[in-house]
Amino acid sequence: MGLKLPKVIGHRGACAYAPENTIESILTAADIGAEWVELDVMLTQDGVPIIFHDDTLDRTTNGSGNVAETPYATIRELEAGSWYADSFAGIKIPTLEEALEILIDKNLGLNLEIKPTPGRERETAESALDILSKYWDDHEHLLISSFQLSCLETAQDMAPDWYRGVLFDDDEDMPENLRDLFEYVDGATVNIGKKIVTRELVEDIIDFEKPVLVYTVNDAQLARQLQGWGVDAVFSDCPDVIAQNLLKVH
Ligand code: G3P
Ligand code: MG
After folding, report:
1. Are 138 and 159 in contact (CB under 8 A)?
2. Active site residues
């Protein structure tokens, strides 16, 4: 029993090879042998949890404007592949439900990152967890994470037994006492950005006796260095390349 993390988690699916956070990206991750993927979940204006990263639609779709101000009926008509490559033209933004069906079919583990628009933190976590609870029963292969403490608190209230990961991107985000925060949300993992990772920080977290995860690692040499420091898993856009280049023992 316990969280069954792999050494490499596909970031936004396998977004070096297919448009991020799409069904095609999840399928590609499965095809190249990833065991887990990380996906971002956000809410549309009318509260539908979708798999999407940015606050706005502009970068990765043919739409524009804020996701949080756009109803699902509009979002489902958008095209989310051409920005990446013509061969992906016509693909759609998946709902969380659609993504979960594929993940379960492909036997992939999931790190679901809850990305709320400001002011909708609890609602976003509640909606995502409501759907997850209908589909997902293998909690050894599920990690809920967020940069937002209130999303983790909501997850703790709704599903205390599901594993939670605390995310940090910047030094400014790091609390004075990381252990207190970690214990407060009863975290299972600490997930940190590579720009703030140091050997000292990794060793501090290892003292909590919980896994340390680092994102986003696309360089094999960095992956091996982190592995040598005791990092348990890395998120990568090209999980196959990183998995092939890790040291065999750890
Ligand atoms: O969960 C790890 C990583 O995905 C966090 O940053 O911006 O890629 O969602 P971002
Ligand atoms: Mg993410």
Report:
1. no
2. 11, 53
Q: What is 8-245's CATH topology?
A: TIM Barrel (3.20.20)
Model pLDDT for residues 130-151, shown as the tens digit of each residue: 999 999 999 999 999 999 999 9
User: What atom of ligand 1 comes closest to residue 165's alpha carbon?
Assistant: 1
SS3 sequence of 71-109: CHHHHCCCCCCCCCCHHHCCCCCCEHHHHHHHHHHCCCE
Nearest CA to 213 out of 163, 249, 172, 176 is that of: 163
13 vs 133, 135, 141, 186, 217, CA distance in Å? 21, 19, 15, 27, 14
Would the CB of 232 count as within 6 Å of ligand 1? Answer: no
Q: Which helix (H) or strand (E) holds 121?
A: helix 121-135
pLDDT mean over 168-185: 87
Q: Is the CB of 38 under 6 A from ligand 1?
A: yes
Place of tokens 């040291």: 247
105 token code pair: 């079919």
- Render pLDDT for 58-91 as a digit per residue (tens, 0 to 9): 999 999 999 999 999 999 999 999 999 999 999 9
Q: Is 250 a residue whose pLDDT tops 80?
A: no
Per-domain boundaries in the chain: 8-245
What pTM was estimated for this model as a whole?
Answer: 0.97
